[in-house]
Amino acid sequence: MVFGRKNKKVVPFRTAGELDAMAAAGAVVGRALVAVRAAAKPGVSTLELDEVAEQTIRDAGAVPSFKGYHGFPGSICSSVNDRVVHGIPTAEEILSAGDLVSIDCGAILDGWHGDSAWTFGVGDLIEADRLLSEATKLSMEAGIEAMLPGNRLTDVSHAIELGTRAAEKLHDRAYGIVDGYGGHAIGREMHMDPFLANEGAPGKGPRLVVGSVLAIEPMLTLGTTQTKVLEDDWTVVTLDGSRAAHWEHTVAVTEDGPRILTLRPE
C-alpha cells in the first residue's frame, strides 16, 4: 500500500532481532500472495481472492493490515488492468483470461508489518502486458540493490528510475512512472516517513544505515504518468486507460547487503 512523508536524518532502523520478526510477518504476506495467484482464474471474483488472502493470513496467526485501514474494506488491494493501486475487491469484479492483476497485501504479526505486491496475468498475457510487469519488477530490483549503508533515500529513488530506463532500452518501448505515488518506511506501523519516490536526483534525503527498512514499490504504465481516484475514494486508475503494474517488497539494509523481508515460497 502507498502513502507517507517527512524528513529525518536517517531512515528508521531495526535491530537484527526486529528484522527477523519483520521477516516472519513478511513471510505470511508472501504465502498469501502465492495463494491469491493460485486462485486467480477466469470466473473468480476479486472478493474471492480477498477471502483467500485473509484466510491465509489469519491461519498464520497474523492480522490483515489493510482491512479497516483508514476505512479500507479489504485484506488486499486488487488492481486489474488500468487500475494502478488501491483497488477494492468486490463480488462484481470477475477475472477474465488475459487480465493483468496487481495484488498488494499486508499482514501484522507480533506487532510488526509486512507489505508486498506483485503483478501477474490471468492465463497468458499479451507481450506488452508481460513486459510491463517484467519492467516494473526490474525497477524494483534496481531499487533493492541500492539499499546499502551510507546511501541516501533518493539514491534508491534514482536507482528505481534508472531501472525503468534500462527496461525501456531492453524492451524497446516507453513506460510511464506513475506520478505522486511511491514507497515508504515501515515497522510497527505500515506507513512511516520518509516517503520514497520512484524517480528523482540522487544524493538527497535521510541516510540509510544498517537496519533501515523501506517498502520499495514502483508502479509503471504502458502510457501516461497521470492518474485519478475513482468515486470510491480509493481506486487509482490511469488517466488514459492504459494498463499498469505494481511490484513491492519490504527490504532491510544489512552489513551483508539488502535483505528482502517479504520473501514468497517457491
From TrEMBL:
EC class (word): hydrolase
Annotated GO CC locations: cytosol
Recorded catalytic activity of this chain's protein: Release of N-terminal amino acids, preferentially methionine, from peptides and arylamides
Gene3D superfamilies the UniProt entry points to: Creatinase/methionine aminopeptidase superfamily (3.90.230.10)
A single GO BP: proteolysis
Residue span, Peptidase M24 domain: 21-255
CDD domains cross-referenced by the UniProt entry: MetAP1
Residues that hold a divalent metal cation 2 according to the record: D115, H184, E217, E248
SUPFAM superfamilies given in the database record: Creatinase/aminopeptidase (SSF55920)
The EC number(s) this enzyme carries: 3.4.11.18
Binding site for a divalent metal cation 1: D104, D115, E248
The protein's role, per its UniProt record: Removes the N-terminal methionine from nascent proteins. The N-terminal methionine is often cleaved when the second residue in the primary sequence is small and uncharged (Met-Ala-, Cys, Gly, Pro, Ser, Thr, or Val). Requires deformylation of the N(alpha)-formylated initiator methionine before it can be hydrolyzed.
Assigned protein family: Belongs to the peptidase M24A family. Methionine aminopeptidase type 1 subfamily.
PANTHER family registered for this protein in UniProt: METHIONINE AMINOPEPTIDASE (PTHR43330)
Protein name: Methionine aminopeptidase
Source organism (scientific name): Nocardia puris
Gene from which the chain derives: map
